[in-house]
Amino acid sequence: MFLEPHFRGQRSGWIEVICGAMFSGKTEELIRRLKRAKIANQRVEIFKPKVDTRYDDAKVVSHDANYILSTPISHSSELMELSEGVNVVGIDEAQFFDADLPDVCTKLALRGIRVIVAGLDMDFRGRPFGPMPNLLAMAEYITKVHAICKHCGNLATHSYRLTNTPDTVVLGEKDLYEARCRTCYHMGNILDLHSSEKSEKGLKPEKRKLA
Ligand SMILES: [Zn+2]
């Protein structure tokens, strides 16, 4: 668990990054940190890219429907004006932002703002995603959270896409992606075949019982 640093009242800004695969609880962790800051009467603002319209336009929503209101923005430069007088800035789905985001976060931190960024560290090809690698290099604090591999139960670090679409950005949930460990990720669709065989076998006795 991330414990907030303590500066004895001295005003100081910094960057925190929460990264990991899909279904690893990044947004839940972002929400937890922001809610704690709110309880301490700090002024908190949350932003997300306009591209992410999976759940709701104005809310940062995690998979368990625990949410806080956010402002959708189209470019990281908008953060400068929108963060006037704010103590803590939360940014969700940072991988979809433009390449200027790390510099903007640095400027916000220099203003004395605590910047908490959550995002996918790798795309479905297993490559560093958008501005995330630079953010990770420039942040004071990094938390890598893990999902659980659906196939073997080890910690999952990769987001495996279940469809053949070549586009890097395909928004979707459990119907399109699953979290996998490194080994299962590299086994690719061999595992898809295994799991469909297993579920077919599992269904047969049930069917017989019903008949
Ligand atoms: Zn695995």
Describe the model.
The structure is a single chain. It is elongated, with a radius of gyration of 19 Å. The chain has six helices and twelve strands. Helix 3 runs parallel beside helix 4. Helix content is 30%, strand content 24%. The chain has 211 residues and is α/β, with parallel strands linked by helices. Zinc ion binds next to helix 5.
Features:
alpha/beta, 6-stranded parallel β-sheet, two-stranded antiparallel sheet, 12 strands, binds zinc ion, elongated
CATH superfamily caption: P-loop containing nucleotide triphosphate hydrolases
In helices, the fraction of residues equals 25-40%
Helix/sheet category: alpha/beta
- Write the H/E string, N to C: EHEEEEHEHEHEEEEEHH
Distance between the termini: 51 Å
Quickly give the CATH architecture: 3-Layer(aba) Sandwich
Mean pLDDT value? 85
Tally of helical runs: 6
* Strand order of the biggest β-sheet: 5-2-6-7-1-8
- The total of beta strands comes to 12
| Beta-strand share of residues | 15-25%
Shape: elongated
Tally the structural domains.
Answer: 1
What's the Cα radius of gyration?
Answer: 19 Å
Describe the largest sheet. 6 strands, parallel
Bound molecules: zinc ion
Write the layout of secondary structure elements.
Elements: E1 14-20, H1 26-39, E2 44-49, E3 59-61, E4 67-69, E5 71-73, H2 78-82, E6 88-91, H3 101-110, E7 114-120, H4 132-138, E8 141-145, E9 147-148, E10 155-156, E11 158-161, E12 177-180, H5 182-187, H6 190-210
Parallel strand pairs: 1-7, 1-8, 2-5, 2-6, 6-7
Antiparallel strand pairs: 3-4, 9-10, 11-12
Helix pairs in contact: 3-4
